[in-house]
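Loading example: each entry is read as two labelled lines plus one structure line.
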Amino acid sequence: MILLDRVTKKYPKADEQTALDRISLQVDPKEFVIVIGQSGAGKTTLLKLLTREERPTSGKIIVGGVDYDKLKDKDIPLLRRKIGVVFQDFKLLPNKTVFENVAYALEIVGISNREIKHTVPKVLSIVNLKDKANAYPRQLSGGERQRVAIARAIVRQPRILVADEPTGNLDPKHAWDVINVLEKINRFGTTVLLTTHNQDIVNKLKRRVVIIKDGKIVSDKANSGYKS
Amino acid sequence: MKRRLITLLRIIHTGTVNFIRNVSLAIAAIAVMVVTLTIVLFSVITNATFTNTIANITSKIDVSVFLKDSTTEAQAVSFVNNIKKQPNVTKVIYLNKQQALQAYINQNQGNQDLITAATETGNPIPATIEIFPSNLNDIQGIKTYLVKPQYIGLQISGSPSYNGSKKVAIDNITHATDVLRKIGIITIAVFAIICALIIFNTIQMAIFNRREEIQIMRLLGASTGYIRGPFIVESIIYGVLAGIFSVLIINSAFLAASGALQASSLGLLDINYANQYFDGHFWQLLTLQIAIGIIIGTVSSVIATRRYLKFKTH
């Protein structure tokens, strides 16, 4: 479960600009929640708070039972291992193959090579990239790269998957490929928190939609659509 | 436990691969480290050689007590035993009249006139006590003890005698050695700092080139140790290689010196002894050099990576 209680985030170097203003949000296990809003509305800040890239200026955050107020620096890597993250710019390692990029997430937690060889192909099958295991990111399309990033995010079987504008750099076909994969993962029981400003995706998915405007939640409705 | 071992092996593997990939960057760091470690090794050997030279000279300094012929054997033995009890005395040799004469004859084998003069006049050589001090500065204390009223009556005039002129020379040598030692320590410290700064910059450049990868590793949940580890391994490789190179350089210098120099001594620096010391302590010196290299490398890489691995605090 994800819980944000009156969370405010101000960036000190940008004239005390308030990125998020006393937002409260609860996401239950296995939910699929879409966070939508204009650029600069605070969507990315929200996700950065969840992965503890940023600290809130005030308010409480609890994710998967972990109270971030009590989280020590040394425990941040452990928290991040429990949350799968998909970035708009993929953040793939250019000198590693598709297989190696996905395996990397397992290597850093000390999984054996044998287990990696067994697990990675399975995950690549889920994102339909098994035949691209030996390709480098530069040899893939945008949609394929994003699916590699999703494979990397889910390979450790996190209970929560956070996707920050994963379709932002993709054409409609590839964007739907990625969304389909996220839905599939959600069906397996993973909580998905997706940020986007793609109206078409929001309207077709018919999921819970949280709208953020100027750092505040202005709407939070289940099975909702969106009109800008 | 198994996961930790796997992680450790991965860190070592990544560090080694990074070292090979960044070899051009590493050469500068290793070169400076080699210079530093060579100076360290040179200072260690020089210090050992100076210490040995001073010890050799010190061992040749003694205090001699010449006893009157009227002193009985029992008085002499009692006197010797009391001298042995003094804390600053390492060795005492007692030669009675006959033994002293024999020693005199042995010392002057090549001079028949002196031997004849000594043997045909009814043994003019007095019984002698030779006293070896543990420290040159103790000589005055021994002399004070020997001239106590109960002992001065046992000795002929001019006794006790000691080679005081050598002491002044040795004092000068000791002082010079101390100064050289201090200069050596300062030089080592300066080079160690320069060396650490260069390694620091090398690692920072490597981190700068890989900052995006480090950021991704961070976001994926890699621990600080997992990210920092390969950089430390890389620095340890610098240290090990620099340690080995510095020992090889000194070894080559000795080989060249033994061929080029006929003289075995350069003033206080006894090359033969220095060479023996180097050969006799080869593995200890190699270990010392590698250990210093590893310490410099590890400390500088830990400091260099710290800035990039901090979590946001606001």
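The mean pLDDT of chain B is 81.
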